[in-house]
Task: structure prediction
Amino acid sequence: MKVDVLLGLQWGDEGKGKVVDVLTPRYDVVARFQGGPNAGHTLEFEGQKYVLRSIPSGIFQGDKINIIGNGVVLDPALFKAEAEALEASGHPLKERLHISKKAHLILPTHRVLDAAYEAAKGDAKVGTTGKGIGPTYTDKVSRNGLRVGDVLHNFEEKYAAAKARHEQILKSLDFKYDLTEIEKAWMEGIEYIKQFQLIDSEVEVNNLLYQDRSILCEGAQGTMLDIDFGSYPFVTSSNTVCAGACTGLGIAPNRIGEVYGIFKAYCTRVGSGPFPTELFDETGDKICTIGHEFGSVTGRKRRCGWIDLVALKYSIMINGVTKLIMMKSDVLDTFDTIKACVAYKIGNEEIDYFPYEIDDTVEPIYVELPGWQTDMTKMQSEDEFPEEFNAYLSFLEEQLGVQINIVSVGPDRDQTILRYTEE
Ligand code: GDP
Ligand code: IMO
Ligand code: MG
Result:
C-alpha cells in the first residue's frame, strides 16, 4: 500500500488541518512527520472549532491510528494541555495516538534559548513562534538532544546535563529568565506522556504498510519555510517538503503515492522574511479582515498578498505534487478583480523561476483576472461554480501544470468541493 502526503506549498497556514480531517476517512492512519507546536492546524465541524499543534488532524474521524513521528519535536507541557483539552471535549486519545520514541523533546531551556537568539538578532530576527523549535533541532543535529524514549530510563540525569549546558549558553548571552513555572508544567508533561504508547514508529508504519493499511502524512508549516528550500534564513528548522515524510517517519521514497499540495487562493506569511506579492494597501487589509488572517498559535496578524505562481511552481517541483488543493477561495468572493503573480522583475530582467535571493528589489509581474463576485460559501458541487471562478481555476491549472482536485469555500468540514476523480 502506498503512503500519501499532504503538505503546504506557501508559508504555512494554508488550511492543512481542515483538509487532513476531510481526507482521513479514506485512510487507516494519519501521521505527522516534522515540526512541533509551532504548528496550529484548525478544524471546524458540527459548530465546534479545534486548533491542533502536535496531535495529527486525523484524531476526530473514528478510530484511526494517529502517529507523531520521529521527525517531530515535542513539548510535553504543551502536548499535555492539548491532549487533556481534547479528552475533556469527548475525544479519547490514549489508544489511538502513538508517539515515536525517537521524536526529540523540546526542553524549557530550548524555549528560553529561542527567545535569547531572537533578541540577539535584533531587527534581523526570524519572528519565530517562540516554541523552542530552532534550538531543539539544533541539539538534534549536533547530537545533544533528548528524545521521547529517554523518559523511560535515567531521565533526571540526562535532563540535568542538558539543562546545565543550555544554562551555560544563556549565561554567555547574559539573558535573564525564570524557569520555575514552565519547568514544573514540563515535568508534569513528562509524566503524562508515559501514559501513551511510546513506539518505534518506523517499525509500526512499515508493518502497517505490509498489512496493506493506508497512511496519510500530514505536513506542518509550508514549503517556503523549509530549512533547505525556503526563504532562508527566514524559515523553520525542519524539512517541510515531501522528502521530510520519508526521514520523519522512516518511509522509503518508493512508497510515496499521491502528493497533495495545498495553497490559499491568495498568499499569507507570518513572521519576518521576503514576500514578493505582499500588499500594504487596502486590498491587503481586506484580505486580512475577510480571511481572519491572524495566527492560530501566536495570534499575530498575518501579512497578506496576491497568489505567487513563481513560488508555487517551485514548491510543486520540489515536492512532486500530483494533486492540488485550493483553500479560502471564498475570501475573494467580493473582489472585482484578482491578481496572480506570474513572474518577477529583478532590475531589467524578468524571471519566472524562484531565485537564490529575494530582496525588496524583486517586483512581481501580475496577470489580472475578473472576480466572480458571488457568495460561494454554500456551494456543494463544482456545477455551481460561476464562470469567472472556473476561469480562475483553469488559469491556475494551466500555469501550474497540475489539476486542482479540491476547492475549499469555507472553514467548515462540509464546505469542501471535490473535483475530477476525487469524488
Ligand atoms: P494550517 O496551519 O495549514 O492547518 O492552517 P490554519 O488552521 O493555521 O489556518 C487556516 C485558517 O483558515 C483557519 O482559521 C481555518 O479555519 C480557516 N479556513 C480553512 N479553510 C478555509 C476556507 O476555505 N475558507 C475560509 N474562509 N477559511 C478557511
Ligand atoms: P502551520 O503548520 C505559519 C514561521 C514563524 C517564523 C518561522 C520560524 O500552522 O502552517 P519557528 O517557530 O518554526 O522557529 O518559526 O516560521 N512558522 C509558521 N508560519 N504557519 C506555521 O505552521 C508556522 N510554523 C512556523 O512565524 O516566521
Ligand atoms: Mg497554522
The first helix runs from residue 16 to 23. The mean pLDDT is 96. The chain is about 30% helix and 20% strand. The pocket of 6-O-phosphoryl inosine monophosphate (ligand 2) is lined by residues 8, 11-13, 38-41, 126-129, 131, 133-134, 220-222, 225, 236-237, 270-271 (CB under 6 Å).
